[in-house]
Design a protein that fits this description.
Length: 215
């Protein structure tokens, strides 16, 4: 009998985020529950591991800053709800940090497979450190992958959220290493006439295609 192999298409930037419904430490949650707000969906390899513990403490520390930006957090690993609960209780007891956001218990790997969180070159039984930033229309706007050995940088995640929200609000792009309050990049002109006008509009221009401004 011929075995039919199905190709799994992983989400890409600009795609609708794959829908799911899952059990979490705060009850059953659906992706649609977050419609209208930004969402950071992130995976970690396993409960009761040191790098993951530092990350969950770090995510908890930026939770209020994310809330001010209209961003929700949702964690995930291939562990049970009971394991998650025991771990976050341990973190609260030993590290004096309360984990305020829900964690998906993805024992059947359904969500992990939809989002391409399992990389067999790293592990066949644990998710790598994925970060999916999903906008209020539930479109994937950014994806970051980290290996099992490397903890994530919270300052960069906040910077990325700020950059995406600034671009959406003002119709601009952000340069390398941009931080809020710094100059942004004006979209390049599409015609020769617009290029000529661009140089007269008071922007800080290096050339016709490269102009910056303050917001």
């Amino acid at each position: 009998m011929e075995v039919v192999k199905y190709e799994i298409r992983l989400p890409r930037i600009g795609d609708p985020a794959p829908s799911f419904e899952a059990d979490t430490t705060q009850g059953k949650i659906k992706l649609e529950d977050f419609k209208g707000s930004w969402l950071i969906l992130f995976s970690h390899p396993a409960d009761f591991t040191p790098v993951c513990t530092t990350e969950f403490i770090a995510f908890s520390e930026i939770n209020d800053a994310l809330k001010k930006r209209g961003v929700e957090l949702l964690g995930l690993s291939i562990d049970s709800v009971q394991s998650h609960i025991a771990w976050i209780r341990n973190v609260e007891e030993k590290m004096k940090v309360k984990i305020p956001f829900p964690i998906i218990a993805d024992l059947n790997k359904e969500v992990a497979m939809k989002y391409g969180m399992i990389h067999e070159g790293q592990s066949k039984t644990a998710t790598v450190r994925c970060v999916f930033i999903i906008d209020p229309n539930q479109i994937v706007r950014a994806i970051i992958y980290y290996p099992l050995t490397t903890g994530r940088n919270m300052a960069e995640i906040l910077r990325l959220i700020d950059a995406l929200q600034t671009s959406d609000k003002h119709g601009v792009a952000t340069p390398a290493n941009w931080k809020p309050g710094e100059k942004v990049i004006v979209p390049p002109p599409n015609t020769t006439e617009m290029a000529e006008e661009r140089l007269k509009q008071g922007y800080e221009c290096k050339d016709w295609y490269f102009c910056m401004k303050k917001l």
